[in-house]
User: Which sequence fits this backbone?
């Protein structure tokens, strides 16, 4: 696997690592609690971080691969020109929502920095944990732009083939 492919899928790779850690810590916590009667006290903190990171990192990858839930049956019945307009409006809404979420995420990170808030057990600064919100909003915008660009190229090919068929 080349470096470019790894870098393009870094969010997916990190999401897989977060999922693996989440599963191992959860399974280990169950084993320790019920078989050894000695719960892992830091497990809940790590599970929370992994779940947060998994959610945001996976969201970026889902944009890139077009894996978000969509009901396209109505849109696919419309003419290509209308489909293209809907695609543009959809892209604009997605980018605006993600930009706003990134803005709110910077407020959360700034507040965590200002208050020097850390986790109770492992003393990890919340700045590191919550920074994934801003990072992934930016990567989701990039992935949404990449998917949007590819979708517009598909429309161009479909329009060209429709013109050829009419001729």
Assistant:
């Amino acid at each position: 696997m080349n470096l470019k492919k790894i870098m393009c899928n870094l969010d997916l790779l990190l999401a897989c690592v977060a999922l693996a850690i989440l599963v191992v810590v959860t399974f280990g916590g169950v084993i320790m609690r019920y078989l050894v009667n000695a719960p892992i006290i830091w497990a809940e903190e790590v599970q929370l971080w992994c779940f947060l990171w998994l959610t945001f990192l996976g969201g970026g990858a889902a944009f890139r691969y077009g894996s978000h839930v969509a009901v396209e049956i109505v849109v696919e019945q419309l003419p290509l020109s209308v489909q293209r307009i809907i695609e543009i409006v959809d892209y604009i809404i997605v980018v605006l929502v993600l930009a706003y979420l990134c803005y709110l995420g910077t407020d959360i990170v700034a507040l965590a920095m200002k208050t020097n808030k850390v986790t109770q057990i492992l003393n990890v600064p919340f700045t590191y944990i919550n920074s994934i919100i801003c990072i992934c909003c930016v990567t989701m915008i990039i992935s949404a732009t990449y998917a949007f660009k590819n979708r517009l190229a598909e429309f161009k090919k479909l329009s060209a083939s429709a013109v050829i068929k009419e001729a």
Observations:
- The chain has a mean pLDDT of 87.
- DSSP finds five helices and no strands in the chain.
- Residues 3-166 form one domain.
